[in-house]
Design goal:
Membrane topology: Multi-pass membrane protein
Number of strands: 0
Number of helices: 10
Pfam families: G3P_acyltransf
Structural class: mainly alpha
Subunit structure: Probably interacts with PlsX.
Main location: membrane
Distance between the termini: 52 Å
Family: Belongs to the PlsY family.
Strand content: under 5%
């Protein structure tokens, strides 16, 4: 594996590791890890700091997934791009800056998916939005969307490497939502709509 790819892989992981939720919360004089659900993602930031802060974190988390993968498509073949896609989400979920802890990877995964396949990403986003509007649960929408993303990208792109990447990313996201799943089953999960 060429040295250029190794360097790019490390950079992609480090970019994914930037905890924008924590950084933004610090600017507001809070530590998001000690507020709400304790998660550093846009959902908890919105819950604790408001919609504007949450939207900013969402955009930044998406961009750190989108930019390195979008650029990589012009440099590397699809097999290597797929490895970079996984590395980006791993960076967010297991950040070197947070002692290998992190968020749940949804926003970063959306950014990655937009870079891999704009059409597939739009379908997944619309599916996410539909589940969210009906159920009111961000976590449920995220888990269901993660579970079908690989099927959609396989249908749209017919690229085995992108399909594998989406499957692995979806699995990571679902595993990171284990506590949310437990709360959903117990009926104690935080509900954004239809309270």
């Amino acid at each position: 594996m060429e040295i250029n790819f190794i360097v790019y892989l490390i950079i992609t992981y480090l970019l994914g590791s930037i905890p924008f939720g924590l950084i933004i919360s610090k600017l507001f004089g809070k530590d998001i890890r000690k507020e709400g659900s304790g998660n550093i993602g846009a959902t908890n930031v919105t819950r604790v700091l408001g919609k504007k802060a949450g939207l900013l974190v969402l955009i930044l988390d998406m961009l750190k997934g989108f930019l390195p993968i979008y650029i990589a498509k012009y440099i590397f073949d699809t097999k290597l791009v797929s490895l970079l896609a996984i590395a980006s989400v791993i960076g967010h979920c297991f950040s070197i800056f947070l002692k290998f802890k992190g968020g749940k990877g949804v926003a970063t995964a959306i950014g990655v998916l937009l870079a891999l396949s704009f059409k597939a990403a739009l379908i997944v986003i619309m599916f996410w939005l539909g589940v969210f509007l009906v159920s009111g649960y961000v976590s449920l929408a995220s888990m269901l969307s993660a579970s079908i993303s690989w099927v959609i990208i396989n249908f749209i792109e017919n690229n085995i490497y992108y399909t594998y990447a989406a499957f692995i990313i979806g699995l990571i996201i679902i595993l990171k939502h284990k506590d949310n799943l437990d709360r959903l089953l117990k009926g104690t999960e935080y509900r954004f709509l239809h309270k």
